[in-house]
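User: Could you check the structure of this?
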Amino acid sequence: MSVVLHGSLGWVLDSCSLIDRGYSPCIRWRENQKSALKCSFKRQCFQVFKSYYNENNRADVDTGNTEVLKKTCKPSKKRKRKHHELNQGEIDSLVFHEKIKSVILEGTKYLVDSAQPLGYLNGQTNVDKEPLPSQECNLAALCEMAKDLPLVEDEEQERGAQLLVGEDGCMSHVDLFSQVTENKADWATVVTVMGEEYVIPPHTAFLLSDFTRIQPLVHYGTRFDLIVMDPPWENKSVKRSRRYGSLPSSQLKRLPIPLLASPNCLVVTWVTNRPSHLRFVRDELYPHWGVEVVAEWFWVKVTTFGQFVFPLDSPHKKPYEVLVLGRYRCSADISESPSETSEVPVEDQRLIVSVPSALHSQKPSLSEVLKPYIGADAKCLELFARSLQPGWTSWGNEVLKFQHVSYFNLTPVDEKAEAEDDCTAKEKQAQGFDSPGKT
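Assistant: Sure, the predicted structure tokens are below.
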């Protein structure tokens, strides 16, 4: 069950199940021979059992959960930090937090309490003890090297897209850096790209590039009804960890949103908890693109027991992130049909509650949450993507990062036995054995 609960205050999501929906059936091509696989994302990536504790070794009491998981090791000695006056950024953060604190606290409690009788957020019993995948992603470095390649002429880019795998199962000669690549199959496909195996969802398209090579996405010729982006915001933590390259806020204005968005396109941006970034999106970035802010939502990160992953009042890290939602108000020169001008109102201050991934920067899929606001047949685009979604187009310099086979469990399937099981199940259903109310 990918959407565990949908209530008036928001949603509770099972992020791992959301990923798995797009990978059945799955086919692997090797030497022009295909084999069937059972494919699922590694669930240990979503096994977050404990909250982070404060210096007094107490759990966050704001969650309403009094259970304390004691530490077995001695607390490390830390040098006491000198008290200092708050700077303007810290003051702004505190003011924003106090403004939304009750929404986060009360809404999360309601949603978690509602999900627990359904068997979710009660603590995971089937623990997978395998270590987390640690695949090093070299895609960003490859994009940097691709900058030295000559740009493709506009006439050639008008071809639109290239197929990842031909009808005969042969890998096409693909140029991932200068043309959108599509998997038009009705199944997920395991393919070898640049010497590594990746799992590509069905009916997906992607472009592996950075800002200097985003033109093929515009030449792809599609205007999207939903654009979701998770920019690599600049902050001290990113600079220290060097996990990925960051981008100055001002550079985001270069994204060609007016060339990619359909009329009334829903634009959703993940924003860190720095008020300066939130102000930039609301007051500069969206107006620059012609996007009208319509709502702010919050992603609340909880453990498998339903506790906040960080204390709600922690001065360092908060257990929530902000999403800014807006509608693209197109210029007069874009023709609109009556169906395009209609839109579903977006409610403000909704919560998305889920157990976060232990993998850095892996956000939950918003596909099911946003469907009511864009329609089931909407064309969807993710910018700065680190993974692919069925039916979506994705762009970024790490767009295949979480598609690497090391993040998946791949099990060979006996196609003959599976076909026999399907036939047996259909026969039973036809005879009424599986009908509701019958035994």
